[in-house]
């Protein structure tokens, strides 16, 4: 019995955490500390905070990987959720490892916008597109993150390629098309943008650079 108890403890999953980007939500964990824990199988359950019964996640029942997609199960974005994972090895089951409480609306990370740059001889036109959630409208198109939050676009210009960190904020607001005027011909300009959420004071990562020479 003692050996079983040791095995139970040593295969118990560690660091059970929700990761979420634009409401694409996955549960991640790490194997137990025993070397043989790498061969364990995992079982995932979830529930809304306050519910008494746990739901099995069928696609993550007896899996060998340490990640489970719970996007569909956490689609009520204002609700707080919990998840838990247990491991099994050689007929021995670990105790459950519990995640922290996760509320998608508060905790999902917002991704950067898509940026397209069109230049004329003295100006750059920047076209911005907010990231999309995984959730769909009745017609089938994915709902943009701007439907869920009051989001602003922040557009930065990098006009000194030696100093990547020297980004100048040239626009903040909701317009999807902006024009940056009075630029110098023959100079290389790069544009990066991010989404900003004033209410929670969150920012996305920067978009990838879009560069152009006037």
UniProtKB/TrEMBL annotation:
The keyword Repeat applies. The lineage of its organism: Eukaryota, Metazoa, Chordata, Craniata, Vertebrata. InterPro entries: FN3_dom, FN3_sf, Ig-like_fold, Interferon/interleukin_rcp_dom, Type-II_Cytokine-TF_Rcpt. It is found in: Secreted. Pfam families: Interfer-bind, Tissue_fac. Keywords: Disulfide bond, Receptor, Repeat, Secreted, Signal. Receptor for IL22. Binds to IL22, prevents interaction with the functional IL-22R complex and blocks the activity of IL22 (in vitro). May play an important role as an IL22 antagonist in the regulation of inflammatory responses. One of its GO terms (molecular function) is cytokine receptor activity. Gene3D superfamilies: Immunoglobulins. Belongs to the type II cytokine receptor family. GO terms for cellular component: extracellular region; plasma membrane. This is Interleukin-22 receptor subunit alpha-2. Residues 108-212 form the Interferon/interleukin receptor domain. Residues 6-96 form the Fibronectin type-III domain. The gene is Il22ra2. PANTHER family: INTERFERON/INTERLEUKIN RECEPTOR, INTERLEUKIN-22 RECEPTOR SUBUNIT ALPHA-2.
């Amino acid at each position: 019995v003692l050996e079983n108890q040791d095995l139970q403890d040593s295969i118990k999953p560690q660091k059970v955490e929700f990761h979420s980007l634009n409401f694409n939500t996955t549960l991640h964990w790490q194997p137990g500390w025993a070397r043989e824990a790498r061969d364990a199988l995992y079982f995932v359950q979830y529930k809304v905070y306050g519910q008494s019964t746990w739901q099995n996640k069928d696609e993550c029942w007896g899996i060998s990987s340490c990640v489970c997609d719970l996007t569909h199960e956490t689609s009520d974005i204002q609700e707080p959720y919990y998840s838990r994972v247990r491991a099994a090895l050689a007929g021995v089951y670990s105790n459950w490892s519990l995640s922290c409480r996760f509320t998608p609306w508060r905790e999902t990370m917002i991704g950067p916008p898509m940026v397209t740059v069109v230049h004329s001889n003295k100006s750059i036109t920047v076209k911005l597109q907010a990231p999309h959630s995984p959730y769909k409208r009745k017609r089938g198109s994915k709902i943009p993150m701007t439907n869920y939050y009051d989001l602003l676009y922040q557009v930065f210009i990098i006009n000194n390629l030696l100093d990547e960190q020297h980004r100048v904020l040239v626009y903040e607001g909701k317009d999807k098309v902006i024009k940056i005027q009075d630029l110098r011909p023959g100079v290389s300009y790069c544009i990066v943008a991010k989404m900003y959420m004033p209410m929670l004071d969150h920012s996305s990562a920067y978009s990838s650079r879009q560069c152009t020479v006037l």
